[in-house]
Amino acid sequence: MNDKKICFIVCVNNDMYIDECVYYIRNLEIPSEYEIDIITVQDAGSMTSGYNAAMQESDAKYKIYIHQDVFLTKRDMIYDILRIFKDSSIGMIGLIGTQKLPDDGCMWHGKRVGRIYTNNILSSKEFIASEDNEKPYMQVEAVDGLFMATQYDITWREDLFTGWDFYDVSQSQEFLKAGYKIVVPYMDKPWCIHDEGFLNLDRYEEFRKIFLEEYMGGNNH
């Protein structure tokens, strides 16, 4: 495992988005002794299968899984991430998360921490999930899949999550089960723009039930 390497992993089905995404990655400030790699997974069958394939392909200690429609605007964010990961008990960093996962498994139904610029079909705005941010980071139970940085490799549950929903909350639970902390850093302004457009929730309920069965004892609200 190369501990001086940071690999960005993106599942792609839109060339315009990925060109923009990679443009922002290339403009990040990188510490001189580190190198950056970018793996794009074209037309993955699911987020978990695409991420597992890329994870196994990369020898980078640090992996950052981001959506193709996420544009990283904080140019020195790699320095922040490496600083947080000096604590070996921290396994994953997200930009939006929840300190207490709601009983229905849906992160968006509870109080969240973090902040992003969000642009969707209805509005364009700065989304501030919480004003009571603690420095240098807040511990959470789950993070949103738009940005998930890791310093350990844990297999994504492609045996359960064969689509595009709940892979992020599942992976959060896998990291907690392995004994690692998950955190959202303190941000005085957002680190990224999320240009999410339309949301496809066709199989959301199906995967929510799978998640509850696997991680929350079938608690089905």
From TrEMBL:
Domain Streptomycin biosynthesis protein StrF positions: 7-215
Stored InterPro entries: Nucleotide-diphossugar_trans, StrF_dom
Full protein name: Streptomycin biosynthesis protein StrF domain-containing protein
